[in-house]
Automatic annotation (TrEMBL):
Pfam families (alphabetical): CcmE
Residue ranges, Cytoplasmic side: 1-8
HAMAP family for the chain: CcmE (MF_01959)
Protein family: Belongs to the CcmE/CycJ family.
Cross-referenced InterPro entries: CcmE, CcmE-like_sf, NA-bd_OB-fold
Topological domain spans for side Extracellular: 30-160
Domain of life: Bacteria
Location of the region described as Disordered in the Swiss-Prot/TrEMBL record: 132-160
Name of the protein: Cytochrome c-type biogenesis protein CcmE
Gene this chain is encoded by: ccmE
């Protein structure tokens, strides 16, 4: 092999290695910024489309119904805690800030934040469902699978 051909081969390998490293870094950055949607039962039991439980420290969005009687407000700060439930799971959510006007017990909400432990989410944002006419398809499917309304206001099956 002559020198010119050898230099071209080395340059090609360096460019390909650089592209590979750049692609890996971009994929890692995208993976770190993805907030997956879970229902309370998927967080607790790991069932559903996710197929595995989220790990503590993972950023996520969790959607469910606000359990009646579970909203606790700190009278001196904007801290609030409440429970979200679906058909077979209940998780605790803590939030500091102003809640949406439509937030109330028995309503559907989506909390975006970090999973602190297996049953507690520290929310950075809380979104209240504002209109019955449109819900993203993945949320509608998850809620249909995991939520059965009851006469007592609390879902049936698996609640403590």
């Amino acid at each position: 092999m002559n020198q010119r051909r050898k230099n071209r081969l080395i340059l090609t390998l360096v460019v390909l290695a650089g592209l590979g490293i750049a692609t890996a870094l971009v994929m890692y950055a995208l993976r770190a910024n993805i907030d997956l949607f879970y229902t309370p039962s998927e967080i607790i039991y790991g069932k559903g489309e996710a197929q595995q439980k989220p790990e503590p420290g993972q950023r996520l969005r969790v959607g469910g119904m606000v359990m009646p009687g579970s909203v606790k407000r700190d009278p001196h700060t904007l801290k609030v805690s409440f429970q979200l439930y679906d058909n077979s799971g209940v998780i605790n959510v803590s939030y500091e800030g102003i809640l949406p006007d439509l937030f109330r017990e028995g309503q559907g909400v989506v909390a975006q934040g970090v999973l602190e432990d297996s049953r507690h989410v520290m929310a950075k944002e809380v979104l209240a469902k504002h209109d019955e006419k449109y819900t993203p398809p993945e949320i509608t499917d998850a809620m249909k699978k995991n939520h059965r309304p009851s006469t007592s206001g609390v879902s049936q099956g698996g609640l403590p």
